[in-house]
C-alpha cells in the first residue's frame, strides 16, 4: 500500500503542481500547496492571494488530502483493493482533482469501472465538462485507462 501511495503522491505533484502561496485555481477558488482547496476550517481561509504558506503546512495538507481521497474512493468502490492499480491511480487522481461530490456525478464512469469496462470508463471521462477544464491531464488519464483494457 505504501508503494501505491508513493506513486499517487508523485503523480499528483506532477498534475497539480506545488505552490507555497495562495492562488486561484482554474475555477477561481482559493488554493495552495498541492491543489489544496482552502476550506473555511483552514486558518489560511480568507487570506489574500499571494499569502505565503510554509512547506510544513503544505506537506500536512497533502497527506490529509491523500487520505481523504483514498477514503472517498473506498466509499465509491466496494472492491477498491481488488481494482487494477492503474485504475485506482486514475480514480484517485480524478477524485483528488474533483472532490467527492463532483466525482460522484460521474455515474456512468463509476459503473464502467465497477463493471471492468475500461474503454467505456475512458469514454465517459472524455464526454465530461471536467475534460474541457483540464484537457491535458484528462487525456493522459484517459490514455492510461484505455491501456488497462489492452492489458486484460
What does this structure look like?
The protein is mainly α and 152 residues long. The protein is 62% helix and 8% strand. The protein has 8 helices and 3 strands; from the N terminus they run αβββααααααα. It has a 3-stranded antiparallel beta sheet with strand order 1-2-3. The mean pLDDT is 95.
Draw up the topology in text.
Layout: H1 2-16, E1 19-24, E2 30-33, E3 36-37, H2 55-76, H3 85-98, H4 100-103, H5 107-115, H6 118-126, H7 129-133, H8 135-151
Antiparallel strand pairs: 1-2, 2-3
Strand content: 5-15%
- Spans of at least 5 consecutive residues whose pLDDT stays below 50 are none
Major beta sheet summary: 3 strands, antiparallel
Q: Figure out the total of helices.
A: 8
Radius of gyration: 16 Å
Which structural class best describes the helix and strand composition?
mainly alpha
Overall geometry:
globular
- In spatial order, strands of the major sheet run 1-2-3
Multimeric status of the protein: single chain
Number of strands: 3
**Gap between N and C termini:** 22 Å
SSE string, helices as H and strands as E: HEEEHHHHHHH
Mean pLDDT: 95
- Helix % is 55-70%
Please summarize what this structure is.
The protein has helices at residues 2-16, 55-76, 85-98, 100-103, 107-115, 118-126, 129-133, 135-151; strands at residues 19-24, 30-33, 36-37. The chain has 152 residues and is mainly alpha-helical.
